[in-house]
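Two records follow; treat each independently.
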Amino acid sequence: MKIVSVENISKTYGSKKSKQMYQALKNISFDVYEGEFIGIMGASGSGKTTLLNLLGTLDKPTSGTYQLNGQLITKLKKKQLAEYRMSNIGFIFQDYNLLETMTLKENIILPLSLKGVSVKIIDEKLQPLVTDLGIKDILNKYPYEVSGGQQQRAAACRALITEPKLILADEPTGSLDSKSSKDLLKLFTHIHQRYKSTILMVTHDVFAASYCEKIMFIHDGEIYNELHAGNDKKQFFDSILDVMSVLGGERA
């Protein structure tokens, strides 16, 4: 089943009046199918973060169309867009974005609380998730009282609790050490396999990208190339590294 359909998306910043216009994305088209785990890579300034913001409905394209789960996103008004985003998109950020004044439980259930979901239904959704992701015993702690890995698991629970059609991850390993990065990528793999989640992850990290099923490379606002993972993970890693070397991206 097709979850995302992007057709001729462009994004231009600035205005003709100011004569300072910058085209971040240029007529990009692609589809994403249910259950895919896709990495988005490119050198700094290539347009990958702009693309993620458009997919997350945090920004609007200058031209082109974007459909998510059959809904033409580019036609929704502001309030409709906010409601659709809350129900259909889960976000996992590099810095977790947990509210320090709320417990982990309160952070996780916030999207459902804002929608007015009953306490009974919230609990029915919460318990299996936190048990599965191993944070059931620390739900009443605040973010500053737990490790970075536990905060990231709470952020993942928050992204999953609405049963979104699409999970967007923005440089999730960017501030982690190698062990924490590996643990997080194992968590992503578990989420992908256990919940059949559709995940798009922006990353500059070749190691992180090697956990994906497919990599989409962005160069100067356009899709430059795609790579598909096979059975040989090392060969996939080496192929990603080769493309990023050509594009001038970081090798970390």
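The next record belongs to a different protein.
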Amino acid sequence: MNKTSSTSLFSAIVAASFGAVGIRTEGAHVRELVYLPPAFNVKAPEDMVSERAALQVERYLDDPDFQFDLPLAPVGTPFQRKVWAAIAAIPRGQVLTYGDVARRVQSAPRAVGQACGCNWFPLVIPCHRVTAATGLGGFAHHDDAGGFHVGVKRWLLAHEMVAGY
């Protein structure tokens, strides 16, 4: 897919130190946020919802204490939404393991990891704050230690001043 056609998939694209964040909107809701590699160009918002989302993503990238307030599309299974609510409650600067979250939602760490990987709204639902018991763990269904997505997770944790990752 070339840069032009892939850019058209997003309602806005915001530059980030690790690459970019693609924003997809659907009606009055944010439908998805996507981590994009540096090859993607910034794209001005197409509508009011993507403009609001782009401004909030930029605010978070400038200030890790920024609190999102976006109209998110109702997606995910009841279990995924339960996991995402537990993840959204993790304060900036802290991490929990997959096992910690699993205990909070009365499930198994692997199931929590799957729900994390299915998160449609990274940054807003900060799944980067969930790590493996013995290290960083994977991210967005990617576990290549030197890969783009794990690099994004490292950047986000450093941005939020979490040491050791």
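Discussion point: The first helix runs from residue 3 to 7. How would you locate this feature using only the token line?
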